[in-house]
Design brief:
By secondary structure, the protein is mainly alpha-helical. The protein has one domain: Arc Repressor Mutant, subunit A, CATH 1.10.10. Helix content is 37%, strand content 5%. The protein has a two-stranded antiparallel sheet with strand order 1-2. 18% of the residues are buried. The model has no long low-confidence stretch (mean pLDDT 89).
Length: 79
């Protein structure tokens, strides 16, 4: 198995940052699973407002995460 490139570019039209719900749809996973990855730091995320509970995942970070673990991406769910 080859190592994936360290950076991917998402397809045109995909939001640059995705919510937990969008990530769950793209990965075809439950939101609670994604929430666990976000809390543990397994899936890197960002908060745009200090103290806000909302976390966003950059689309390129999601692509790297999915490649690392072999998850297919269903981008059509967020287009």
């Amino acid at each position: 198995m080859t190592t994936p490139p360290p950076f991917y570019t998402p397809p045109p039209g995909v939001p640059a940052c995705l919510t937990r719900g969008q990530v769950a749809r793209v990965l075809n996973m439950g939101e609670e699973t994604v929430k666990g990855w976000l809390r543990s730091g397994a899936l890197p995320s960002e908060r745009f407002n200090e103290g806000a509970s909302w976390r966003y995942v950059r689309a390129d970070v999601l692509m790297n995460f999915a490649a690392r673990y072999g998850f297919p991406l269903h981008w059509e769910t967020v287009l």
